[in-house]
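Re: weekly structure request thread

Next one in the queue (161 aa):
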Amino acid sequence: MGTNYGSSEIIYYDLLFVCRFCRKSIFLAAMNVIRIGVDMLKSKRSVFFVLSTFYFGCVFSAQPFIPDQFHGLWGDIRVGCANSPLDNDTGFKIEPRKYIAHEQVCHLVSILKSEKRSLTAKFKCQEEGETYEQVKTFNISQSGNFFISGEIKYIRCDEKQ
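Done, posted below.
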């Protein structure tokens, strides 16, 4: 004998399977299932609403991001972190979907190559009123405290500076 699920449970579990990697979508759809209620799930319009929440949530949560080990404020090792590296053009900051340097903001477009301590990504950058695309390669040391870019070595700075 199989388990007898109600119609709302079947729809919910099927959608979980379809979008199992989309955490935001699962949360949004679960909230909609609760909000709509079991009786309203029988109407086609409500089912469409829940399905569209999953679909669009999956699409938007599938955007690329820079892995955590690269995040933070980085300052040129020759200068250190005493002064704000972003203000004096001696460092940069990496966020989940952004690279920020002195008078430059680059938004992540796509990941070209990703390894544990190396990342090559395509960015759309804005600098002094100009917009352009740029490929950047990030390399960090095994300890995660140093960032290597060409011949320049950067040290991880305290975020509060």
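The helical segments are 7-18, 23-36, 44-61. The two ends are 63 Å apart (CA to CA).
Next request, please.
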